[in-house]
Amino acid sequence: MLTRRDILVGSIAFGAFMRTRPAIAKASQPATPVNFDVPSGACDCHVHIHGDPAKFPFYSGRTYTPETALPEELAALHKELHVERVVIVTPSVYGTDNSATLYGIEARGADARGVAVIDDKTPESELDVLGRVGVCGIRLNLATSGINDAAAARRRVQAAAERVKSRKWHVQIYTNVAMIAALKEAVEDLPVPMVFDHFGGAQADGGPEQPGFAELVELVGSGRAYVKISGAYRASKLVPDYADVAVLAKALIAANPDRVVWGTDWPHPNSVTPAGRKPTDVTPLLQIDDGHLLNQLAVWAPDPAIRRKILVDNPARLYGF
């Protein structure tokens, strides 16, 4: 819930860099230069902001506790990546409190949009405020919340779409490809765009033949859904090169390059609390080289015109830049 004045309408590779960073900095920064020309207006379509917990308290029912990741660190990241625009997504650790996301949007200005988390208690007046400051979609995090019942997921997706259709927002879902297969018919009938996070939850070691991936490809190919080829390290077993993810990325791009967007998933929270620790204990952020991550896009989409669709045109359409 909004709580403040409408919210102000590979560690060694990083060693040398980390020694020069401000003491408060925890989130990763690029260690590898981008090796292709990033088009003007490029957008990172999936990042999170973790504010100072004293100002932006975490949700009591969270499953992990991340380190801080601040707007100025995000700005430094994107300067190195030559990325102009950003979509800030409310992470599960805040429940339905979108304050930290709106804090990040305000810091970035007109080049930022947001994806919020709401529930059935969120009033329309709050959605009005969210829309005015740049939110254009809502996220259902089925993966972190452990929802694997297809009927329950279908009800949540349909209710979310009905809630935001008059606002021309989209619904974003974090789940797995098996659940996407179960939701395919419901997604085809939705009155709003559907966006799937992180390769739809596909895992690289399952290949294109893994159950559910064909349905994801069909939804993207028909134009009924967008997919974020984001957080490749979450799908890959070949960190840090992510070579095994290429076949998935190329299949999704080939299906429909007009329905694919890209994102870092910065600041790379580790959502699995280590054994023997509590969800309220701080779990360090993963140290991911986002320069190397962005360079994979040139492997997956060697045609600059296709990369422009993924980085510029598709985000502009979906998020209203």
Features of the shown structure:
321 residues, TIM Barrel, two-stranded parallel ribbon, 12 helices, 10 strands
How would you describe what is shown here?
It is a single chain. By secondary structure, the protein is an alpha/beta fold. The protein has a single domain, classed as TIM Barrel. It is built from twelve helices and ten strands. It has helices at residues 15-18, 71-81, 99-108, 124-132, 142-145, 150-164, 177-188, 213-222, 232-235, 246-255, 290-300, 304-319, and strands at 43-47, 65-66, 85-89, 112-116, 135-141, 170-174, 194-196, 225-230, 260-263, 282-283. It is globular. The two termini are 26 Å apart.
